[in-house]
């Protein structure tokens, strides 16, 4: 075999910098306002029916065991393979060429991956269909055969000649048949190929938010929104535009080709260790080293103080050797391309990145793991091509860490970071990424990552970790979430017990062989964690008992491992366990964003309707339609769709007719293409109610409620409610008048700030759909909105209500459904006034006291008194007016102190009073720091009822900054995030200023009931990421009105009177409230609750408790137990002294016929002071037992002779009077002076009819 020489070139770039521009990737959010989130997690994806049926058909045709996985983004299978060495059942020409074999398989089984009937017929041929065919086709990208004889045919999905972004399918086969198919196919693409914007216009939009950049490449494609995020989406015509500054900045910007909306930004220069992107101007590099040149004089390369040129040269070569020796790959492109390395001389570093041509390093970044990390980005680009965003991006980063750290641990080179590669932190440097980056290996700067324990530096060690990054910041959290895949690799190599799984070590050679095969055979640009897990499992299965190579960084020669060191099924079991340990197949713990809360609060009891509409008559009589467009084509032949109409069907199971404001998709009738003068349908249409007269003031408050469902194009299409008072101008309902489910989103801004041509840009509206729900669930959900009209009107006014739907020029999703509109009055009902009677003493010594209340005039009763076992006051209450005295402020690293502080009055516009404020103004020098505000006192969460935390907040910071509410149940040692705010900074620098000036604090509510019965600590944590975006202003996190309350109220009496005496209350504090009833016509309406009153009892401890009862924590055991019936010892301490349940758990019977002694022991499980023991044996007439007394006979079956004993700590001692002989009674009572003990025993010496029978044992004493 001929070994090709490695070609390496190391270049030195001298930079003369006049100034720098800081740049970060940003993502459109569709809204500047915060939306409601649930605390639910995303559900595991379920296949759409056609795909599920295809899999069932495939499985039933042969009985082959099949592994499969459903894409959360598309609802179809993205991985299907035969298990073991089997093949998938299909008509396969084994002698045919691989491409046609693959096409034949997909023509038969393409519905697995989402192909329509037409697409399955098209795929049988390699000829691309014409533009008249509205279906996707597959274009072969590559055909390869690997060293174990398997062949892989990779296809790109095409639609009318356009590439579908991220959509690749790979069909796998061998000489016996097709073994699997994986990758993403986007079902149902239906987009117009003709763009409204030309490439130049799109390029201008892509470059407008960054200076000194130019367009390098433009391609018209199909972009599927949500594919990277793992969420439902829509296929749209878009331009893929590569922009660059010619140096360190290279990005792919996706611009929607009809409206110019920015869909996504993807960094094409992966940067592995530092997350701060600078784009300085610099001159041309010049070569300083070529292949074969000697090292410059100085320290050994790879050691402390070595010349960085020598280091880059050595480590690039070692990276080449690692891939070449292990897998036979000749350079990053597989074709022996020269590996160019560039050393940057620049005082605005740190950074290191791959730019598609070379790897580039700031001073001190010439470490072995860093160099191999950056070169692996190059290898990634030429293999699986993982997109640098969201989970595919996290895998991209993880692969670079995996190869970089493997290089570091096997090359015997160590520098500043330390040389103990045998132990992980804190004892050594094993599995640390970047430990040798001299001067920058501060964990707080994000340079280091710990693959063995990712949480050490704030990264997740499993998918459900609170460190898992949700949202669009840091390109979807790719640098953070890489910790999951890193951890799996580290534990697979070394072995580890984690998260309930014990993974045995399989070593570097086996592990990297599996990962490399997944990288080169199965993974595609949009592979997510679940696809990665399937790829690892398939790769391991493929490699069982196949030759694999040893790994070397010093030689490119391939050396095969000994047969005994090959991969076995046992090793693949470890892969499975590692995947389980890091929860690779678990949906991320990201909140589901619900546009409308489906829960409706109690509006008002006794309401009187003064206007209603449910559309069931099928017409809109009494409603006035309005419609106006921006351009003349609004009135064209499709005009009818631009009006509300009655729909007989509604989504999400809603019954009956609704009013629908429809937003047709592109290609549907009236969907448009945003071409002004042709088919730009920007405009709005509405329905107005007739005039509704507001009642007199005495009638009470007036409210409007309606049910609705929203599924529209986010930020540009949606619904609003307006009112007109006394025939005045229609005005939007202000935010403060919404009682429930007001709009929490806003329309995008108009050009040039954004591209929204909706006539109401920037206004609050219901726009968009739910985010994070399963693909098989409806995009939206129904909710009821309630508006307080009393705040907008006066008695006697007339009001018209308008439902207004507005849209931009083209393309919708579904629309806005409105139903069950109701305007009603809420009667003014007064609450009783509650007080404690004169018999109450504070505290009350006997647990008996009277509560009195006054019944308001007009109330009829009956009244209800409620009791809660919890004090009336809140568990926590702080409105920030008193400063931070109840809280402890702390921060990590060298962050300026204090970052948490009390905000000045009115410091946040549109908010009265003080707040707590996490100050971000010093962030430029505080990357990767965090600051905490911890409540000083532990908080005991009651064991009963519902406990709720409430606070108000406003937040606007960089994408990789986050605000957390965290709880600790172990005194503050470990913390769990129960709420995260990672609001996007937006796509334009000035978005924060408007939000800061106009938005109000948003109320949040968190359910703490899961901590019932526990004592918790609470804190707010503001975490700063690595980015410093100088063009964006950060405003911090404002917090106010923090409270924790508990509601454990239950009814204790319903009475016609206005007084009640409670009795028998044990020591403790309770809370009381009362409400009365009003008779309104034929209705009995409960009024509001009274004031709350606390009552405290402090009783003298009673010593007459049966401490032997199981409810007191006692347990019973016996020397033996008869098993023919239920004679459990536990039945002798259950409180039943009659024996009514004898033979059914109602008492104990021994199992040694005619043999004594027999013992029944009762363990109090604590020390009790007792003075009486009652022993109950079986009555004569046990089938019809009576309540026993000391005279009840038991001379047929009862025990005869026995000792009643207690444990004195070392031995059993008979209590005074406890030696009972010749007993004939069902109940025996022994009293004595107080004895402190933890156990008692009934030692039976003789019994009747062969056995010892005990019905119950009582020990009377102090609880």
Low-confidence stretches: 1-41, 272-286, 440-446
**In total, how many beta strands?**
63
Total domain units: 6
Summed over residues and divided by their number, the pLDDT gives a mean of 87
Class of the largest domain, according to the CATH hierarchy? Mainly Alpha
CATH architecture of the largest domain: Orthogonal Bundle
What is the number of helical segments per DSSP (H or I, 4+ residues)? 12
Structural class computed from helices and strand pairing:
alpha+beta
Please give the alpha-carbon distance between the first and last residues: 87 Å
Strand content: 25-35%
Based on CA atoms alone, the radius of gyration comes out at 37 Å
Basic shape: globular
Task: Walk me through this protein's architecture.
With 1263 residues, the chain is α+β, with helices and mostly antiparallel strands. The protein has six domains: 8-14 and 313-415 and 422-581, Neutral Protease Domain 2 (Neutral Protease, domain 2), CATH 1.10.390.10; 45-281, no CATH class; 608-820, Sandwich (Jelly Rolls); 833-869 and 1049-1097, Immunoglobulin-like; 876-1047, Jelly Rolls (Sandwich), CATH 2.60.120.200; 1105-1261, Sandwich (Jelly Rolls). Strands 56, 57, 58, 59, 60, 61, 62 and 63 form an eight-stranded antiparallel beta sheet that branches. Strands 20, 22, 23, 26, 29, 32 and 34 form a seven-stranded antiparallel beta sheet that branches. Strand 45 (962-968) and strand 46 form a beta hairpin.
